[in-house]
Design a protein that fits this description.
Elements: H1 6-19, H2 30-54, H3 57-62, H4 65-80
Helix pairs in contact: 1-2
Length: about 80
């Protein structure tokens, strides 16, 4: 799966800005936050093969890319208690 188009990265940035908790002490600029979103998206692209190889063979061969992404999202959500 390719990196997100610029418009989608912009949408992630805007959604994240809206989702920040009121009064959150964020000490980065909007540009730095956008750079972080770009870096996270790039990291996903660069590490997708490694993640796929880490999955058990039955899941690796039967899950779609979207199902594998959802699996990872659920694990991250639980690990960091993200709602």
């Amino acid at each position: 799966m390719a990196i997100l188009p610029d418009a989608d990265r912009q949408a992630v940035w805007a959604d994240f800005m809206r989702a920040l908790e009121s009064g959150a002490n964020i000490t980065v600029t909007k540009t730095e936050l956008r750079d972080a979103i770009n870096a996270a998206d790039d990291w996903i692209d660069l590490n997708a093969a490694s993640y796929n190889l880490a999955l058990p063979l039955p899941v690796r061969t039967s899950f779609t890319a979207k199902q594998k992404a959802k699996l990872l999202m659920w694990v991250i959500r639980r690990r960091f208690e993200v709602t």
